[in-house]
Write a structure and sequence with these properties.
- The chain has 362 residues and is an alpha/beta fold.
- Helices cover 41% and strands 16% of the residues.
- The chain starts with a helix and ends with a helix.
- Helix 2 runs parallel beside helix 13, helix 3 packs parallel to helix 18 and helix 9 packs across helix 14.
- Strands 2-1-7-8-9 form a five-stranded parallel sheet.
- Strand 10 and strand 11 form a beta hairpin.
- The chain is built from 18 helices and eleven strands.
- Bound molecules: iron/sulfur cluster.
- The site of iron/sulfur cluster has 14 residues, from helix 16 and helix 17.
């Protein structure tokens, strides 16, 4: 407990706020690209503590939010195959597909189990050898290694009834796409969890090609404020660079073991991101030698054409072009009980975080 308290210490928070205020002379915007940061920033009210010349923007850091409705549509179609059990993190079951959700499919008779890790999905596969278990793999470099580990365990355990539908993605192409689209920011608050796996080298192109800084941040208020202070100092000196604030978890070289597992099981593929479209080499698919575990190859289902709700502006929210309350549905027909878009469903979604901590009750 003491460890956490240290990073919520009020005097450290006050000191950082005053140092940020005293050092910051330019109008700057920084973007976080991690759903955990989006939630932490709103929860601790950090935007209201900053001088008015510093703006924080939320980016495409929530994996559930950036994934295509087509992924949900495919999962729903798979769930309707007799004998199939879908194993998924709880976040996904209420995410709207084009026509329905996994939660509604479950109510209509599909077997959809909420799991807390891929290990739970493997246990279901062992328990029901006559059923086919499909784990929905979603997330960035943070969660993809555990999916890879699960597939390796399934292979070494001889499990023949275990499959993965992968929507895993990698972060750098999205950060690059945002910059190339012309999003107006002066630096990134770098994703702490992703960087624990990848290390810091993946961001080096940001200062080199785009003159943008990136400070990899932890998740407590002191972490985030210190990262903002570091970005402010970079902007003031006009010296963009990659720095690690979250040194207690992130090493420049990352986690070699996790990266090796990723590399063993997955390969890069082009993938679609909400708001950004198809980005080259931004997704992770199973390598050929693991094709037996690939639900997309093993099962053939009719998936309806993707239908988006044109009123939902999640794509603009995910690019930091608008704040959630600029969407006309926010807090009205779209709320956490009746979400219209994925950004209102996930705990890490900007609309959800904004509704829960910033807007609700005003
Ligand atoms: Fe989409 Fe709802 Fe957010 Fe609007 S408030 S952008 S409809 S999730």
């Amino acid at each position: 407990m003491k460890y956490v308290d240290e990073f919520r210490d009020k005097s450290a928070v006050r000191d950082l706020i005053s140092r940020i205020g005293a050092s910051s002379t330019k109008r700057v915007s920084f973007m976080e690209v991690c759903g955990g940061h989006t939630m932490a920033i709103q929860k601790s009210g950090i935007p209201s503590l900053l001088p008015e010349n510093i703006t924080l923007k939320s980016g495409p850091g929530c994996p559930v939010c950036v994934s295509s409705r087509g992924f949900i549509d495919q999962a729903v179609a798979l769930s309707r195959i007799p004998g199939v059990i879908i194993a998924t993190f709880g976040d996904l079951i209420r995410v709207p597909g084009s026509y329905t959700t996994l939660e509604k499919a479950k109510a209509e008779g599909s077997r959809v189990e909420i799991v807390y890790s891929i290990l739970d999905a493997l246990k279901i596969a062992e328990k029901y050898p006559d059923r086919k278990i499909i784990f929905l793999g979603i997330g960035f470099e943070t969660t993809a290694p555990s999916t890879a580990a699960g597939i390796l365990m399934a292979r070494s355990g001889g499990l023949k009834n275990f499959f993965v539908l992968s929507s895993h993605k990698v972060m750098p192409p999205a950060m690059r796409a945002l910059v190339e689209e012309g999003i107006n920011i002066d630096g990134f608050i770098g994703p702490g969890h992703v960087s624990t796996i990848t290390g810091s080298a993946i961001y080096e192109e940001l200062p080199r090609l785009y003159r943008l800084g990136c400070v990899i941040s932890g998740f407590e208020p002191v972490d985030i404020l210190q990262s903002i202070y570091m970005l402010v100092m970079q902007a003031e000196k006009n010296e963009p660079k990659v720095e690690i604030q979250y040194k207690r978890a992130v090493k420049p070289e990352g986690n070699r073991k996790a990266l090796d597992m990723l590399d063993q099981v997955f390969e890069l593929c082009d993938d679609w991101w909400r708001g950004l479209g198809i980005l080259k080499s931004s997704g992770l698919r199973l390598k050929n030698e693991f094709a037996d575990f690939d639900a997309g190859l093993h099962f053939h289902v009719e998936v309806p054409d993707i239908r988006e709700d044109a009123r939902c502006l999640c794509g603009d929210v995910l690019k930091g072009r608008i704040t959630p309350d600029e969407c006309s549905l926010f807090g009205k027909s779209c709320n956490p009980v009746n979400p219209v878009g994925a950004c209102m469903v996930s705990n890490e979604g900007a609309c959800h975080a904004y509704y829960r901590y910033h807007y609700h009750g005003r």
